[in-house]
Design goal:
The protein is mostly helical. The chain has one domain. Helix content is 75%, strand content 0%. Helix 2 (16-34) packs antiparallel against helix 4 (60-86) and helix 4 (60-86) packs parallel to helix 6. The termini are far apart.
Length: 226
């Protein structure tokens, strides 16, 4: 029995493209589920322009939460895609690390809905922040695993630069997310807005750009970082 188990564990999870396929599907569904909280206000009391504007303004928590989470999923999908651009081998452990990462992806629509409903509460901000931390932690564990087991199909000089860039991005981004979340003790809306600005920065790559040497080595492999 032990030999059978050992053999199965060695042969399971070898299809790398299967991880990418289910990941894309989970991200697509999760992004779609985010919009379910956005409902057009319908009420017999809305009979004037002012009433309609007031009804729309009442949707601000839902709209902010939606945009925040859309950016969150977009950034983590890009990060996950970036890592798999370099990974050329898989096993059952990488399979399960990726599945646990996706578990936290599927949880984001819930924490988003919770945040939009209770955006004035610090606990809602904290719960959402924990979801982001869990996503980043699983990405970090995934990258550390493939790097240590040499599952990367790139040269050593490029490997060091890519490793530094990915780890630095994860550490810096989650440090900034933590700072943004802490602003909830001042104002919860301010906390959400700061996290949105942090995400816009990472999405547009305003401040964090590779050096000329790093850019030359990385561009030779036709890859894109986060």
């Amino acid at each position: 029995m032990s030999d059978y188990k050992k053999t199965y564990n060695q042969i399971a999870g070898q299809r790398l493209h299967r991880i990418e396929a289910i990941s894309n599907g989970v991200f697509a569904i999760s992004i779609t589920l985010l919009v379910r909280d956005l409902k057009v206000p319908v009420s017999p009391e809305i009979s004037t322009e002012v009433g309609l504007v007031n009804a729309f303004v009442s949707l601000v928590p839902q709209l902010l939460s939606y945009f925040l989470s859309f950016m969150t999923l977009g950034i983590f999908w890009t990060a996950h895609t970036t890592q798999f651009h370099y990974i050329n081998k898989s096993d059952r452990h990488l399979n399960w690390i990726s599945l646990f990462f996706l578990m936290f992806v599927t949880l984001l629509p819930f924490t988003t809905a919770f945040l939009s409903e209770y955006i004035n509460f610090k606990f809602a901000i904290g719960l959402y922040w924990l979801n982001i931390v869990a996503l980043g932690m699983m990405l970090f564990i995934q990258w550390r695993y493939v790097y240590r087991h040499n599952y990367l199909g790139i040269a050593d000089d490029e490997k060091k630069i890519v490793n530094k860039a990915i780890k630095q991005r994860l550490i810096v981004s989650h440090t900034l997310y933590t700072i943004g979340a802490l602003f909830c003790f001042i104002n919860t809306y301010l906390s959400v807005l700061i996290m949105i600005l942090i995400q816009l920065n990472f999405a547009l790559a305003i401040f964090f750009k590779p050096s000329k040497r790093e850019d030359k080595i990385i561009s030779n492999s036709d890859s894109t970082l986060l």
